[in-house]
Amino acid sequence: MSVKMSSINLRRFLLLTCVFFFFNNAFSSSSSKEKEFNVGEMIMHHVKDAHEWHLWGPEHGGTSIYLPVILYDNGLKMFSSDNFYHGEESTTIDHKTHQSVNFYKGVGPAKGYALYHEKIYKLDNNNNLKIEEGHVHGNTKPFDVSITKNVVSLFIGALLLFLIMFSVARFYKKNGAVAPKGIAKFMEPLILFVRDDIAKENIKHNKHHKFLPYLTTVFFFIWINNLLGLIPIFPGGANLTGNITVTLFLALCTLFLTLIYSNKNYWTHIFATPGVPLVLLPIMIPIEIVGIFTKPFALMIRLFANITAGHIIILALISIIFINKSAYWGALSVPMALFISILELLVAALQAYLFAMLSALFIGAAVEEAHH
Fold first, then answer.
1. Per-residue pLDDT of the chain (372 residues; tens, 9 = 90+)
2. Residue 329 burial by CB count (10 A; 0-12/13-18/19+): exposed, middle or buried?
3. Which own/partner contact pairs does 242-246 have at CB distance under 8 Å and 24+ positions apart?
4. Of 21, 37, 327, 351, whose CA is between 20 and 30 Å from 250?
5. CB–CB of 297/251 below 8 Å?
6. In a 3-state reduction of DSSP, which class is residue 181?
7. pLDDT of residue 39
8. Residue 240's closest CA among 298, 311, 293?
9. Which residues have CB under 8 Å from 203's CB, separation 6+?
10. CA–CA gap between residue 138 and residue 19 (Å, rounded)
11. Buried b (16+ CB within 10 A) or exposed e, 343-368
């Protein structure tokens, strides 16, 4: 009976999620009567980072949480991004395509700066931006360490991870080695899975204990943030793991651990590969060195591409309604978007597993002892 009720609740949850996602995109993507609906603009608005957390209504004109802008430009400057989005909307001409381009000029404490494609630039002496083929040329960029939407999502994901893990640790500290209850009952099999099937399986000779904290952290961090990006618990959602900067940092963490803990056997296989004739070493050594960096590069691209592709597909399916300007198309696009959303729940867990498993594989190869 409980399994049946859980299945019903899951279907209801997924249906409500899809309906909420549909209306959220409908309101945020609908343009004025004078402006044609632009699919590319709408998708990029939802996928890329921003200095505001858009809740509902038209882009930059609806209800949003305006995040703090922090710039270092002849001193530290802090102000709300509201000074851009509700500032002076200006138009300039692209010097190459000769098309008009819109951007936001800052007002108040943001005066002298402009926001274009969610990047902040200093205005020139003519109080304008020079744009060529969609890119800014000639205008300098201040050092930007703003709290953007992805940064807020990062804090939320990290906070959830801390709360979950400390709750589990507190349960075992209080009760000892007993049958788990509550959230510990859900987390224990997953933690054991990371230990036995990811860490121990790929890092031999009982060396996995040293790397288990990292592998557990990266697995749950990616999984939690994948789910936060897919399920709009917070209106608007955020595409944290679909941001290549975040996946680059995670991949670099794996690379640094691999290089720091690598042993003599690892470097011997790179600079003096066993069984390879000396005459071929000048060819093999550069290939092996390139291989050191292509492995984390593959980690970075795999996570970024899979998560971003899922978002784009769902948004593109929802966009069919607005392209054809008929709600009847929702009978086709909404079920398809629901199917992809369910599939993305699997992808969210799968990508977390692949990142942790491949990280363990690379680290295991670096610490493996020589075979005699």
1. 444 444 444 444 444 444 444 444 444 444 444 456 777 777 777 788 989 988 877 766 678 889 999 999 989 999 999 999 888 888 888 878 888 888 999 999 999 999 998 899 999 888 888 998 888 988 899 999 999 999 999 999 999 999 999 999 999 999 988 888 889 999 999 999 999 999 999 998 889 999 999 999 999 999 999 998 886 545 567 889 999 999 999 999 999 999 999 999 999 989 988 888 888 888 999 999 999 999 999 999 999 999 999 888 888 888 888 888 888 888 888 899 889 888 999 999 999 999 999 999 999 999 998 765
2. middle
3. 242/47, 242/304, 242/307, 242/308, 242/311, 243/49, 243/150, 243/304, 244/300, 244/304, 246/150, 246/154
4. 21
5. yes
6. coil
7. 76
8. 311
9. 211, 360, 363, 364, 367
10. 45
11. ebbebbeebbbbbbbbbbbbbbbbbb
- Tell me how long the chain is: 372
Q: Which residues are within 8 A (CB) of 310 and not within 5 positions of it... i.e. 6 or more apart?
A: 230, 340, 343, 344, 347
User: Do the beta carbons of residue 361 and residue 305 sit within 8 Å?
Assistant: no
- The pLDDT value given to residue 371: 67
Residue 326: phi and psi, rounded to 5, are: -150, 130
Closest to 49 in 3D by CA, of 142, 135, 121, 147: 147
CA distances from 302 to 87, 222, 355 (A): 38, 13, 9
Joined together, the tokens standing for residue 284 give 């093999």
What are the φ and ψ backbone dihedral angles of 116, each rounded to 5 degrees? -135, 120
Question: What pLDDT does residue 34 have?
Answer: 43
366 and 205 in contact (C-beta within 8 Å)? no
Query: Using CA atoms, how far apart are residues 218 and 150, in angstroms rounded to an integer?
Result: 17
DSSP codes, 266-310: HHHHHHS-TT--GGGHHHHHHHHHHHHHHHHHHHHHHHHHHHHHH
Q: CA 307, CA 241: separation in Å to the nearest integer?
A: 7
Q: Where are the alpha helices (DSSP H) in the chain?
A: 2-29, 39-47, 82-85, 149-175, 183-193, 200-202, 212-230, 244-260, 264-271, 281-324, 330-367
Alpha-carbon distance of 60 to 42, in angstroms, equals 12
What's the confidence (pLDDT) of residue 360? 97
**What span, in angstroms and rounded, lies between the C-alpha atoms of 271 and 285?**
6
